[in-house]
Design goal:
With 300 residues, the chain is α/β, with parallel strands linked by helices. It is built from eight helices and ten strands. The chain is 48% helix and 15% strand. It has a five-stranded parallel β-sheet, sandwiched between helices. A three-stranded antiparallel β-sheet has the order 1-3-2. Helix 3 (77-87) runs parallel beside helix 7.
Length: 300
């Protein structure tokens, strides 16, 4: 993973923005100056925003959350796929299909179809089909695989998204915003950073700049996952301790062997004998004994 410092960002070309006439005025707080008609991004702001974003990424994955890495521009595709696989995250690198988040049940039907064809291919169930039918099924499978391979194991919406070029992936941004799913994104000078929860000002066109930030986010995911796995390993021990603690302090817990059970027994003495009775009932027993004595006395 590259070190997060201004020198490495300069080497990766992170500071180069778009042409002045193509800028979004909302990026003004992140622009340092302009040179040769190109905006120069303030790398100190980029450094601060990146640290904040990486802390968020690590915290989410440390709680078991999963990201979708989204990047469909040519220079980002291989980087997105590699980084997401290394970090155990989902990815979309072909094209964001409308409804991937907001209508996931429909997307799930296509995923199930892709898995079914995969099973048919493995079992050799396509052999009885004609050459034309097999070609049609293979073509369908290729198309589904291109779009859905990165999310084929996704069972529900992700905890957050990481996006390269929010202008290109505007549908993904809109769906995440509609569902309240946080977004971490690389935003260039032609973007609107207010749409993003954790914007990272930087060059979203140069391969070196994209790779620099993708690797940082991927590493943050891996660090968070280590914490999550450690938590899972410790959880059975913590659950057992909590269970034992509840049993020890429960009002219904059985007394340990050797301890007296039942009410305390006290002795009640009267003139003609004694009785062993439960504590709290001694007064009633004494009164009963006195009445019995009076009944037994001879009448005058």
């Amino acid at each position: 993973m590259p070190d997060l410092n201004i020198k490495n960002m300069l080497d990766a070309g992170v500071h180069f923005g778009h042409q002045i006439q193509r800028w979004n005025p909302k990026m003004k707080p992140y622009v340092y100056t302009s040179r040769g008609g190109i905006h120069i991004i303030n790398l100190q702001k980029t450094l601060d925003c990146t640290r904040k974003a990486l802390n968020f990424v690590e915290n989410i994955t440390a709680k078991g959350g999963v990201f979708i890495f989204v990047g469909t521009k040519k220079q980002a595709v291989p980087l997105i796929q590699k980084a997401a696989k290394e970090a155990g995250q989902f990815y979309v690198s072909k094209r964001w299909l409308g409804g991937t988040l907001t209508n996931f049940q429909t997307i799930k039907v296509s995923i199930d179809r892709m898995k079914k064809i995969d099973q048919m291919r493995e079992r050799g169930d396509l052999e009885p089909y004609s050459k034309k039918e097999k070609a049609r099924i293979e073509k369908e499978y290729t198309r589904l695989n291109d779009y859905l391979e990165g999310i084929r194991e996704m069972k529900k919406n992700p905890a957050a998204l990481f996006i390269v070029d929010i202008n290109r992936e505007n549908i993904a941004v809109a769906e995440a915003h509609r569902l309240g799913i946080p977004v971490v994104a690389l935003v260039d000078t032609n973007c609107d950073p207010e749409k993003i929860n954790y914007p990272i000002p930087g060059n979203d066109d140069a391969s070196r700049s994209i790779e620099f930030f993708i690797n940082l986010v991927s590493q943050a995911c891996q660090e968070g996952q280590k914490k999550w796995k450690q938590h899972l390993r410790q959880q059975p021990v913590l659950d057992q301790k909590q269970k034992q603690s509840k049993e020890e302090f429960s009002p219904h817990a059985e007394k340990k062997e050797g301890h007296k059970q039942g009410p305390t027994v006290v002795k009640v003495f009267k003139s003609k004998g004694r009785k062993l009775v439960a504590a709290g009932t001694a007064d009633d027993v004494e009164i009963s004994m006195e009445l019995e004595e009076k009944k037994s006395e001879p009448a005058e």
